[in-house]
Specification:
By secondary structure, the chain is of the alpha+beta class. 54% of the residues lie in helices and 19% in strands. A 5-stranded antiparallel sheet has the order 3-2-1-4-5, with helices on one face.
């Protein structure tokens, strides 16, 4: 099993990257989140997951181990294949997926293209305990930070800002300062919008 690849980026694309490792070019399928976090320098270390099928050997690359762990959890769910798991990791950050599963947020998981209501519910039922245990998440803190995010989004919505743009800014702020109060979150978001 190939667990990681370190080398020079030869080709970079939003859906895949080719990494030259000692003269061999490895094509790794990546999520948009991994693509956006790829270093500007040519050297890179990507964690990998190899899927062997009858007709192909497909290598998936991840910028960090957490993203790879979430990918592995997602593909363990019946009805969620590698392409849907990658789409999910492209649509949401690893942290958002962990929180959605921990909170049982069916609507958020269902918002990913290719996931219906039943699959979203299955993802939550199958993975909630695993996510809470694996990432040592306290359900209370998840609910609190999610409430702050929702309150801030609602306030910015009322002020006339686009929800999609507001959400990007708020998520960025929460990544830097996870324990921020709602008031400070709104103030910082207003400065960045």
């Amino acid at each position: 099993m190939i667990t990681q690849i370190k080398g020079k980026i030869v080709e970079k694309n939003p859906t895949y990257v080719v990494v030259d490792c000692n003269g061999i070019g490895y094509m790794l399928h990546i999520s948009l989140n991994s693509f956006s976090m790829l270093p500007t320098s040519e050297n890179v270390l990507l964690y990998t997951h190899l899927i062997v099928r009858e007709d192909a050997h497909i290598l998936y690359g991840f910028i960090d181990k957490v993203e790879r762990d979430i990918f592995r959890l997602l593909i363990s769910v019946s009805g969620v294949g590698a392409s849907i798991a990658r789409t999910m990791l492209s649509s949401m950050t690893s942290k958002e997926i962990k929180q959605a599963i921990a909170l049982g947020d069916v609507k958020l998981i269902q918002s990913v293209k290719g996931i219906g209501v039943k699959t979203a519910q299955r993802v939550i039922v199958d993975l909630k305990d695993k996510v809470l245990k694996m990432f040592d998440i306290d359900e209370v803190s998840v609910i609190e930070s999610n409430t702050n995010k929702e309150e801030a989004l609602s306030a910015l919505d009322v002020l006339g800002f686009s929800r999609k743009q507001s959400e990007k800014v708020i998520i960025g702020i929460l990544k830097e300062i996870p324990e921020i109060s709602v008031e400070k979150l709104i103030k910082m978001a207003l400065k960045k919008l």
